Amino acid sequence: MVELIGERVRLRELLVSDVALIHPGASDPRVVRYMSWGPNDEAATRAFVERSIAAQSLDPRPQYALLIEALADGRFLGMTGFDPVPNEPGHATMGYWIEPDEWGNGYATEAAKLVVRHASSDAGITRLTAAASVDNPASHRVLEKGGLTRVGPGTFTHENGTVLEAVLFERRA
Ligand SMILES: CC(C)(COP(=O)(O)OP(=O)(O)OC[C@H]1O[C@@H](n2cnc3c(N)ncnc32)[C@H](O)[C@@H]1OP(=O)(O)O)[C@@H](O)C(=O)NCCC(=O)NCCS
User: Fold this and answer.
1) 131 pLDDT exceeds 90?
2) Sequence-ordered list of residues with C-beta below 8 angstroms from that of 83, at least 6 positions apart, any chain
3) Which strand ranges, in their side-by-side order, compose the sheet holding 9-13?
4) In angstroms, what CA-CA distances link 126 with 37, 116, 123, 151, 165?
5) Which of 51, 88, 114, 127 could form a disulfide with 4 if both were Cys (CB 3.0 to 4.6 A apart)?
6) Which of 7, 25, 168 is nearest to 103 (CA)?
7) Measuring from atom 43 of ligand 1, which residue has the nearest CA?
8) Phi, psi of 80, deg, nearest 5
9) Which atom in ligand 1 lies closest to the alpha carbon of residue 77?
10) Residue ranges of the domains in the chain?
């Protein structure tokens, strides 16, 4: 089981009971505005949590979903993780979101750094990529501070089929 400890945050694997923690954010338009999924109904959040838990015992792992909580008091801060890309050994995509009340406190940056270190040191990931909406400069900063490099313009596709303009980031081990 993955557990990553930073200065102020702890990243841990999901439990079934986490649906109640995750769903308010996963259904919040402020959070999902620049994501490739959502806003979720509760069934979608539950399916995500169940898929993430099933992935914990698969080899190779298809997904690493990690809950971010505050080290100081254990409160829920958000979600992060990385997904190995099928048929591209060593390549994974990463993502994250933070509860709106907790934005601007450096939590996403700290979580991203922990994910980058774990993916490359312990999970065999040699190429980590992310696509952030062109309209999401806070995420661009998080990725840069996390050690990824801006590689150029691109797109990503929302699960509803909408294609969004993006800035692409990459880190090679
Ligand atoms: C993007 C997001 C994760 C950032 O979380 P956070 O915990 O507030 O991020 P941090 O505090 O670690 O860092 C944010 C950085 O962005 C900067 N920033 C914030 N708003 C900005 C803006 N409008 N323009 C430019 N930079 C901005 C901050 O100044 C900070 O950089 P700095 O430390 O150099 O000053 C959060 O806003 C969020 O959850 N958004 C919705 C989900 C999302 O977009 N996820 C990413 C999808 S690719």
Assistant:
1) yes
2) 62, 63, 64, 92, 93, 94
3) 3-5, 9-13, 64-70, 76-84, 91-98, 127-133, 163-172, 149-157
4) 26, 10, 9, 16, 25
5) 114
6) 25
7) 97
8) -150, -175
9) 7
10) 3-126
Candidate from 139, 148, 150, 170 with most ligand 1 atoms within 8 A of CB, to mutate: 139
Please state which CATH number belongs to domain 3-126: 3.40.630.30
Number of neighbours of residue 26 by Cβ within 10 angstroms: 23
Confidence of residue 16 (pLDDT cuts 50, 70, 90): very high
Give me the chain's average pLDDT, please.
Answer: 97
Q: Which two tokens stand for residue 10?
A: 């702890």
Q: What is the mean pLDDT of residues 73-83?
A: 98
pLDDT at site 66: 98
How is 15-34 classified by DSSP, letter by letter? Answer: -GGGHHHHHHHHT-HHHHTT
Q: Which pLDDT belongs to residue 173? A: 84
Q: Rounded to the nearest whole angstrom, what is the distance from the C-alpha of residue 107 to the centroid of ligand 1?
A: 9
